[in-house]
Amino acid sequence: MVINVQNLVKRYGDLVALDHFNLQINEGEIFGLLGPNGSGKTTAINCILSLLKYDKGTVEIFNKPMSPDAYDIKRNIGIVLQNIAVFNELTVYENINYFCGLYIPQKTKRQQLVKEAIDFVGLNDYQKFLPKKLSGGLLRRLNIACGIAHKPKLIILDEPTVAVDPQSRNNILEGIQNLNKDGATIIYTTHYMEEAEHICSRIMIMDNGKAVATGTKEQLKSMINTGEKITVELYQLDNKNLYEIKQIKDVTQADFSENRLTVHFIKGRHNLINLLGYLQNKDIPFGRVYSEPPTLNDVFLEITGKQLRD
Amino acid sequence: MFSNIFINRIKSSIRAKDMIFWTWIFPILIATLFSFALGDIDKAEQLDIINVAVVDNNAYRQNEYFNKALDEVSKSGDNQLFSLTYVSSASQADTLLENGDIDGYIIVDKQPELIVKENGLNQTIMKNFLDSYQQTYSSIMNIASNNPQALNHISVNSVNEIESFTEEISLSSNKPSATVTYFYALLAMVCLYGAFQGLSSVLHMQSNLSSVGIRNSLAPINKLRIVLYDLFGGFTVHLACLFIVLGYIIFVLGIDFGNKALFIVLTCIIGSIVGVAMGALITAATKWSEIVKTAIIICISMVFCFMAGLMISGINYIIAQNIPILAWINPAALISDAFYCLYFYDDLNRYFLDIGVLIIMAVVMLLGTAILLRRQKYESI
Fold it and tell me: In DSSP terms, which residues pair with A15 in a beta bridge?
C-alpha cells in the first residue's frame, strides 16, 4: 500500500477540518480526492505530508510512518501545489534544476531528468524565461515540472488545473495519465468532477472533513438512486402531455423549454423505451434523443444534499 | 547539494531588484548625501587664525613679557592663534578695523588693552588671551613682591606659555572627526540590512508562509542544511554589496577608514553575518506574514542605527555613557564602533572586544534560528 491513513483528526479551534479521516491508496492508482472548497482535501494532504500538526491518527507512506524527517519516504514523493511554488528570480530551467537538485545530487543525471521534465510539460521554448513572463497555463506546467522532475513514485497534485485554460488543462490531464503509465501512483485533488471522472481510477468524495464515499466512478454512481437524464428535441408539447410524462414510472422531474423536453429518472430499467413509447403513442413527432447517465455531481448531491460547487 | 542551493541563491539574490536597491543603491545614495551635507563640518570646526593689529608704541616695545607672549601665539604652525599686523598709531588700527582687515587691535599703555568693533568668537578669544596674560603676569608680580625667593622656581617663560585648555588631543595618528561616524553608522546599517537575506532564506523554508517553503520542506534533506546553504549564498551576495558600498565611500567619497584593511574586511564579514543571522532569527521566531516580518526587520534595524548615531551624531556616546547595556546589545553600535576603533585608535583592544561581542551575537542568533526551525510543523498553512 502506498498510503494508509487511519482515523486522522485535525481541528482548528472548534472547527473539525478532518473528522476521523481514513484513506488507503494502492500502488499504480490515480486516486481522486473530490470535494467542494473547504471540504478538507488540502488539509488532508498537508497532514499526510507532515506539514501540518494533527490531533489524532496515523499516517503511513510506503508502509512506513511519515514524519518531518522521514527522508527515505520524502525522496519518493513529488508535490504539485495549488499555488505556484517557484522562485520568481530563476528561469524555467533553473527552477526545475533547483528543485530536482534537492533530490538528485549527481549533476549529469539531474541534467537528463530536467531535460525530460521540460520535454514532458512542453516548455522547451521557454527554458530561459522568468516565471513572470509565462502565461497562467505555462506557469502551471512549470509548477508541475518542478514537482515531478526527480521521477517520484508518489505524486500529489493539489488542484493543478485551477485557473487554467481548457487547452492547458487537457495537456495537464494527459500528462498525469502518462506519469501514471510510467509507474507513478497519483493523488489528485480537485473540485472539478469532470476531471476526476476523466482520469481517476478511484475517487473519494469528501465533505466537511469526512470521506462520504469511496470507489470507482461506477461504484459511486451505483450507490445512488438517481438514474439517467433524457433530453428529446420536440416541436411542441402541451401541458397535458407534460403532466402525463411526469406520471410515467420512475420519472422524478420533467421540463419543456426551447423545443427540448428534459426528463429525469430514478434508477430503473426501460426508462428510455417508456418515454419514447409514450411520445409515439401520442403521435408527438420528435428529433434527436440524448441520454446522460448520472454524474459525480448527482452522487454528491444525493449523498450530501448540496451541489459539488456550492 | 551545496552548490545547487548556494548558486541558485546567489542568482536569485542578484536578480532580486528590491533587495539590491536597499542593500546597495540606497546606501550609496545616502553616503553621497552625507558627503555633500557633512563635507564642510570638520573644516568649520577648525579655528581660523585671527587677524590682530598691535600699536607699535614705546610702551609696547618696553613690555618685554607681553612681546614674548604675543610672539608665542603668533608663531606659524598648527598652534598659531594670531596673525599680527604692526601699526604705528591707534588711528591706523582704527582704519584697519573699520575696513574689516582685522578683528581687533591691542594697544599697550600701562596694561595691554583690546579694542574691538563687534562681539564674536574671535573677539572672545582675543579677550581671553589678554585676560589670561594679565592673570599670569599679576600672579608673578605678587609672588615677586611677597616671596621673591619663590621666583627661583618659576621660569620667566611661564608668562609666555599661554595655551588653550581645550587643545585637541589625538590618541592616534588620525585626527578625531565628527563626520566619519555617520559613514560608519551607515555601513552598520548596510550590515544589518543583511537581515533581508536571512528573512528570505528562512521564509523559503516556512511552509505556512510560502509555497516554495512547502516544496523545500518536502525535500529529503535536513531543513537546517538547506537554510544554512541558502543563508551562505545570501550572505555572499550581501557581503559583495557591502564591499561595493565600502569601496564607494573610501575611494569615491574619500572617507578615511584608517589603514588596517584586513580588519576592515573582517568587520564587514562579521557585521554581515550578524545582519543575516538577525533576519533569520526574527523570521523563524515570529508567526506573522512576510510583510509584517519585513516591517519588524526595518524597524529594528532603524532603531539600532539611530542608537548607533546614524541620524544624530553623538547619540551613541550618550547611550554608552548612560545606558551601557543598550550599547552592548546594539549590533549597529558595535559595528560602527569597531570601524571607529580601526580609524582612531592604535590600540586594538576595544576593537577586538566589539568583534567578540558581535561573534557571540551571531552564534546565539544562528543557534536560536536552528532550534526554532528544527522539526517544525504548523498548526495551519
Answer: A12
